[in-house]
Known about the structure:
The chain is of the alpha+beta class. It contains three helices and two strands. A hairpin with a 2-residue loop joins strand 1 and strand 2 (38-43).
Amino acid sequence: MLTAVVAERGQVTIPKVLRDRLGIKPATVLAFSVKNGVLTAVKVVPEDPVAAVTGCLKTDRDSDEWMDELRGEP
């Protein structure tokens, strides 16, 4: 078990081995929760903006048809 000491300002250093394993780098956002006295930190993974809107247009047209229309006649 790895341990860390809480600093005067409430800061804790996450051990390097865990940062490396979890891909936690400067500016990584962590979400904290408490359940039954257990503190949990979860890395917040930003949602891909393209994936967020994929499929939002309900249409029978495929992407090639949309691109042809947007580009106009050659």
